[in-house]
Amino acid sequence: MLDRLFKNFRKEEAPTKDENALPRAVAALLVEAARADEEYTDDERDLIVKLLRGEFDLTEEEAVELRREAEEAQAAANDLYGFSRVVKEELDREGKMQLIEAMWRVVLTDAERDPHEEMVIRRLVGLIHLEDRDSTEARRRAEK
């Protein structure tokens, strides 16, 4: 009986870190930005794959699979919090800035700035503890 009682007080083993959490979160956020205007184009899909390949050193097939997994995860998610939490914990300031720039690149693929797309980026900027001026800087870099 005491064994059962003290079982709750024993330290459990620390959960193993999911090494794919960051790539999945980044991919899902890129998909979220692309889908925000309800027009998810082939150009946006292709750019997401290109960005994932470059950022995470993936093959074309691995990046396409990651994008597909991210599309499913993003569609099932109720908000950005789960994805943003991973980014906030795993990336330094420069990494966060690169993510915001990548999101702007995806959003600007069609050469139009949609208010819904901008809102997604604005919300994420706050969730990962950046500022509006950081987003503006990232957008300017993406526009070049």
Automatic annotation (TrEMBL):
The keyword S-adenosyl-L-methionine does not apply. Pfam families: TerB. Keywords: Coiled coil. Residues 49-76 form a coiled coil. It comes from the Bacteria. Residues 25-139 form the Co-chaperone DjlA N-terminal domain. InterPro entries: DjlA_N (IPR007791), TerB-like (IPR029024). SUPFAM superfamilies: TerB-like. This is TerB family tellurite resistance protein. It comes from Parvularcula mediterranea.
